[in-house]
Fold:
Amino acid sequence: MKTTDNDKLFFTDEQLKNMNPKHLNELLEIQKKYSESLEVKVKLYEEKLKHAEFMNVLLSEKLTLALRKSFGSSSEKYADGYEQVNLFNEAEENADSNAQEPLYEEVHPSSYKRKKQKGKKENDLSKFPVIRIEHKLSEEERYCLECNKILKVMTTETTRYLRFIPARFETVEEVVYVYGCSGCDVVKRAEKDPSLLKSSIATPSLVAGIMNAKYVNSVPLNRQEQEFKRYDLNLSTRTMSNWMIRCAQDYLHLVYDRMKKVLLQGKYTHCDESRIQVLGEPNQKAETKNWMWVYMTDELSGSPPMSIYQYERTRAGYHPKEFLKDYSGYLTTDAYSVYHGLSENIIVTGCMAHSRRRFEECITILKKDFTPEQIKSTIAHQAMIKIGQLYKIEEQLKGKSPEERYIERQKQSKPLLDAYFAWLHTMKTPDLDRKSKIGDAILYALNQEKYLRRYLEDGHISIDNNACERALRTFCIGRRNWLFSKSIDGAEASAIIYSITESAKLNGLRPYFYLEYLLDNMRKHQKDTNYSFIDELLPWSPAIPEYCKLEINT
Structure:
């Protein structure tokens, strides 16, 4: 028996001839495993090479950008990740001359999907005011040129269009009559509802409109100020900011606190966080990043849908620990380490989407130089296929009860997940480059294995944290537009209002009408000390009026 320079054993022809069948089979099995490990190493090295090439291109692009920033023409500075919209060619880029014009029924569809009935269209459109414009023949034109008789109406042809009416303002003038007794000094005033804000022109409809623009449509207050001026209204950004803070502190925080209490009484919660810059934080540099945390009920849990935003100065672990101190149940998050230091009553579950995303990044790198067929043979693509099978099962289980979901996951998902992690474990070799993209993706999945498996334990748990990420998306879009918050009060007010508007959307409500409804009702309870009425104002309450509810699914 001889050895190579690498201390790998091999046998002479004579030794192989004299070897019994049992030992030959063992030797073949060893050779097979060794060959498989070499194939894995080759794939890892190939992807490592592509990653190195990608990093080279990336660094080159970064150098170009840095040179342009230093020596090129100056431009506005935005927050990280901000993509400026080109306002001058947006229409040209999105226009399609071949696209068909939408029908009236498509832009304002029926509330319910039913079989088309004769005369139903008119009923469906009746909620919009109709301006009727009739086109008739004049008296002279109504005479027949052939026989000189009067023409009679045979039928009518009706065509419908949709007209846009810009926002308009109305001055509400409340006159309180004061009565006095002619026989004594008795004076009596007629009653009126209290103002929304003392000594202010603000009304529930106006404040709700400003909140809806800023927190739902991501229009900063300074842009709203400019738009109001076009309607001959001088409403400053400072005034609107004060209204946001005062209404959040005086009214909306009561709904917020009640929603938070309901969330903490549940057993299935999600959590995520995103940065925010607050200029007014004491003893910190202006460029310091602060954080907005969001907690929400799991969409599979059966609990009332809601998102609770919480402003915090840092990303430290004691923030979720304090928020969740009275919570007991499952918490679905990403791999941020602070979540694993929470109370023993909290069971952390992982996010499969985060794991999948890392393999997807590997494929993005390879697309530049690999053909589709070559990509299919990569570890990253195979991982994506295996994870995709798990998501396909989740798609099929939509609408099932938690009990049915648990049974089917044990039957279908568990064997696939077992095989997936067994496959990943075969790649955790000393040759795995932990700094490469594929190495990072493999190790992330293996390190999170315990948490990624947790969704199999209970049919109320989602496979990922995507719902929480979607809840943060509106906030992130808004943050790109207004970049920072000027004060702690402003950041806390934003957390409250985002919680209200996002929870309204989760419950199928129109945020503007719901905000107006809240503010209009709560101003009437300014002197109340019993807040039991708050339960009827929560976004999932059956007492919410119909006009606040969406009729078109979004």
Summary: Residues 85 and 481 are 11 Å apart (CA to CA). The radius of gyration is 33 Å.
